[in-house]
Structures are given as structure tokens and as C-alpha cells.
Amino acid sequence: MNSRAVLIATGVSYRDLQADGISALTGAGVYYGAALGEGESVRDQDVYIVGGANSAGQAAMYFSRFAKTVTMLVRGPSLAESMSQYLIDQIQGTANIRVWTSSEVQRAIGTDRLTQLVVRRDRGQRSETVAAAALFIFIGAEPCTDWLGDAIARDENGFVLSGPDAIVPAPTTTRQSGSHPPPTVAARRPSGRVSWRISKHTLALRTPGMLQTSVPGVFVAGDVRAGSVKRVASAVGEGSMAVMYVHEYLRET
């Protein structure tokens, strides 16, 4: 199948937290990501967050405005290796946020909704049962990009690169006699731009746009894009923008 333009919007698969009771209570007090609409529902109650990266820190700051306490459960020995210093400073300066390092969820308890957690602390040396109104999980996601192979530039985690990040050296391509030439992707240049075919007869140096990948005519939108904010609203917005860029590209070429 041939196509003049392609939009990659395959999304991600969020990693499951492997602990007893999590699956049964997902959506009933256990959430993957930040369910911002749950802020009022946890007012003056105890909230737990699994994860030690920026997304977890941002969620902790948000829920600290509503909850009695917000406890971050971090598997590592500190936040320093995975979180920006400005967020660490904000967390340390917020009285109702606690950070439990070397800790992980062992079990979620509840009949129709989460009521308690069993937390393994100090690298498994002891377990503690705590009251919990909600558990928010931030343990990452796997982009659905294995099928791309090496055709499109991706980051070390498999997310599709776009814009200035997508500038990569052109691969060496062996072409059989009589076949059509491959899409134009020039080698890296000092200017930080690449030669893209922007009309039927014109090559120009320019940086790929925000939703353009390393291959002209291939666009990316949503959670699968490196640097996206992993929210439904932003993914929908990127999809709308990508359609506009595709129409623009088709007119130019």
C-alpha cells in the first residue's frame, strides 16, 4: 500500500502495578495517571501516589490542595535520580506531602472501593496497613511502536521523535535500477535543519514542525509522541493539528 502522508497515533500501553487487589479496584479508588476530577472526592482524606518521576510529583502537588495527606511511594532511595529539582523543592516545602522511599504497594483492600493499602517499606523489611481514599499510579507506559523498526527516529524508550528532535542523519539506501528514489531526508547539518522537499520541484532547509517526524510525510500525535503530556485533551488537540499539517503537506507536494 502506498500513501503520500501517514499519521502515527498508536498510543501507549500503561504498565500494570503488580500487587494483589489492584486490578479489581482499578477505577474504584485505584487510578492510572492523575484523575483530576477526583480532587474533591478525596478532600480531607489520605491519598497515595506510586512513582518518583515528574508526573508523580505534579500529581502530589495537585492533590495536596484537597487531601489531608499525600504520600508518595517511591521504590528507589530518593527522588533525586528521577525528578526535577524544582518539584523536589516544592514537595519538601508542602507540609501535607510525605515521601516514603524504598517502598511499594503490596496489596489493595476494599469491597466496592479502595479503603486500605498494605505497603511494604524499607526494602521489604516491614509492612504497614494504612487507610487510603485513593491510589494514583505513575509507573510509566510502553509506546506501541515496535512495528516501526528503524524507519522512524525514536527516543531510547521507543517514543516517536518530532520537530527539532527528529533531525537525524540520513540512512544509506541502496536502490535498484528503475525504482523511485526514497523520501528526501538530508544528513544532520550545523544549522540544525534538514533538506525537506516542500514542493514538487523545491528543496529547502527547514526544521521539521512540531508533529513532523524524521521522514517527510509522516506525522505523529498523542501519547506515542516523545514529549507529549499524556492527557486525552492534548492528544485530541494534537490530532486536530496533525490533520491540518497533513493537508498542508499534501498541497505543497
Name of the CATH homologous superfamily of the largest domain:
FAD/NAD(P)-binding domain
What number of domains? 2
Unreliable parts:
170-192, 197-201
Q: Do you know the CATH architecture of the largest domain? A: 3-Layer(bba) Sandwich
Task: Describe the fold and architecture.
The chain folds into two domains: 6-11 and 142-252, FAD/NAD(P)-binding domain; 18-137, FAD/NAD(P)-binding domain (3-Layer(bba) Sandwich). The longest helix is centred in the C-terminal third of the chain and has 21 residues, at 232-252. A five-stranded parallel sheet has the order 3-10-4-5-6. A three-stranded antiparallel sheet has the order 7-8-9, with no helix packed on it. Strands 1-14 form a two-stranded parallel sheet. The chain has 253 residues and is of the alpha/beta class. The protein is built from four helices and 14 strands. Residues 170-192 and 197-201 have low confidence and may be disordered.
Question: What's the arrangement of secondary structure elements?
Answer:
Elements lengths: L5 E3 L3 E3 L7 H4 L4 E3 L13 E5 L3 H10 L5 E6 L10 H8 L4 E5 L2 E6 L6 E6 L4 E6 L2 E4 L3 E3 L50 E4 L5 E4 L11 E3 L11 H21 L1
Parallel strand pairs: 1-14, 3-10, 4-5, 4-10, 5-6
Antiparallel strand pairs: 2-11, 7-8, 8-9, 12-13
Helix pairs in contact: 2-3
